Amino acid sequence: MNTNKKAEKNPIFYNVVLEVPENVGDILAKARENLAIHQKEVSDRLKMRGRASISEYETGKAPISEHTLSLMAIALNLHPNMPDKMKFGEELVFETNPVPEEGYSAFILNALEQRGMTLEELADITDSAEGITLAELQRIVEEKANEKGKLSIPRAKQWVKIQLALETYASGVNISKLLREKRLAKGWNQPELASILKLTKQTISNYESGHSIPGDHIWALLMLALDFHPNYHLLKQDVSSDWADQLSL
To answer: Which of 1, 49, 154, 187 is deepest in the core (most CB within 10 A)?
Structure first.
């Protein structure tokens, strides 16, 4: 753990993003074996590309990034910031860009009404940001089928831009405002938070200014660093991060 004055002022692990050890494949395989879960289940939990990706990490056929390892450590209950006995569980969902419960049409129309905006005004913003035209927005809110007979729904990146333009989020929280509040509560500036997560200061700035929304994996690491996920509370004490001690390798 970082032992500088800033770390002492804020007694929280700075190793939210874990370094990749040489025997990472053995570590991941052993941890999964201890939880008695299949490779596909780990993949499903973290929205990865199937069992093959987990197998490649465990066998060393594919290199694993520090961010991905950190997320797998959460899923496998290995992360030093995870409380003892904490399990990933289906309820622990890291999602910043969900489909709105009321549907895209109702969400957009309700947000427009609350903000006093017209669909044309929304199109002016989204067309320049992500190429979402007024005609496309009209098809979405009117729930019309596209040329292929499928219901018109925004693509993932388009949906992010629509939420940002409306300053309303399907997740139910203002992500930009939340991240800024939680960072300030820790007494960190943007470069410090960026350093903890091995991101750039500009990336953090974009999240807090509403220019972009963190992807689900970065969102999970932000929750670990800022200690605000509703399903767990981070330990504020040293926890052994010695992989061998945890797994008896």
So the answer is: 154
Backbone angles phi, psi at 248, to 5 degrees: 55, 50
Residue 3 pLDDT exceeds 50: no
Pair 229, 223: CB distance under 8 Å: yes
**Superfamily of the domain at 5-95+233-247:** lambda repressor-like DNA-binding domains (1.10.260.40)
DSSP of 52-80: HHHHHHHHTSS---HHHHHHHHHHTT--T
Res. 64: pLDDT tops 90:
yes
What are the residue boundaries of the structural domains of the chain, listed by start?
A: 5-95+233-247, 104-166
List pLDDT tens digits, range 92-144: 456 777 888 899 999 999 999 999 999 999 999 888 766 788 998 998 999 87
pLDDT, average across residues 7-28: 72
Three-state secondary-structure class, residue 198: coil
What are the two backbone dihedrals, phi and then psi, of residue 246, each rounded to the nearest 5 degrees? -75, -35
> In DSSP terms, which residues pair with 151 in a beta bridge?
145
Query: What average pLDDT does this structure show over 55-76?
Result: 90
Q: What is d(CA 55, CA 48) in angstroms, rounded to the nearest whole number? A: 12
Distance CA 72, CA 111 (A): 36
Report residue 9 as tokens: 């002022």
Indicate whether 156 pLDDT > 60.
yes
Residue 91 has pLDDT above 80, yes or no: no
Phi, psi (rounded to 5 degrees) for 145: -80, 150
> What count of other Cβ atoms lies within 10 Å of the Cβ of residue 171?
15
Token pair belonging to 156 = 């993932």
